[in-house]
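As a warm-up, study this chain.
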Amino acid sequence: MKTDTVPAERRWLLLIYQLPSKPAYFRVKVWRRLQRIGAVAVKSTVYALPANVETQEDFEWLLKEIVEGGGEAMVCEARLIDGLSDSQTHALFDAARDEDYEAIAAETRALSARREAADTATDETAEIRSQTNRLRKRLAEIAAIDFFGATGRLSAESLIAELEQALAKDKDMVEEQPKTPSLAPADLKGRIWVTRKGVHVDRIACSWLVRRFIDPDATIRFASGKGYVPNPGEIRFDMFEGEITHEGDRCSLEVLLAMAGIADPALQAIAEIVHDIDLKDAKFGREETPGIASLIAGICAANPQDEQRILHGGPVFDNLYQYFRARRG
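Now compare it with the structure written out below.
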């Protein structure tokens, strides 16, 4: 809890360091680490933290990195006597955290404006919800290094809470609308599958699943994202108002697996990776996710045609499927 006075015997930890001139990225790495642990600069190469067991450990780990990178560093515990006062140092920490909180508040205001302009059932709203979750996580990270309770947290917290409440109401309104009737697994065969142009990970994975496990001869067509009226025999997937699309916090691949009645642990693992890439919420946090995300991004960058993206994405998921099958075995 923030107070107007600073204890008379406030103790500080000081990291004093010197870095080699090269490589340049090492300086950036050290600076970013200092930001993450909440340290503030009291001189150009002197950073401070309030003294406690956790902050001492943070500085000791950073000292180790600096020395291993060819630099020099020392950590000392100090009581400020002259020059910079405890109150002034305290104010430096508050100013740094208030700047962080204001950045979060500004992003939240921008997301709120986007939400007000968006259709509650569009992919953009799902993206806004994902970004709001990211900001909530970032707020918690900043609060963990807010050693003296900067006032900016109240505003940022309030703005995020208001946006979360609005998004929850939007979700409730969508869920109250009549849902498209579920399809039985038998209804998925012999159909024409339609999805949005510009396919990415979720639509590539769904296409792979259809042709690999549901209907090897399935035809897949690509249409505009909004306003498409299905013809007889067509199933729309990963599209607004599609028969198979996002439901709640599940991506289209997760929904398709459930609808097809497929309970394969290897496919479930793939669905978790696709979920995290598509929704960007780190819900499952699988270690394979960043690598698969890079592979799919490369395929999409190299292949502007949707059918080519599906063609080249298939082997990625084939190999991933065998990998998870082997691990389970």
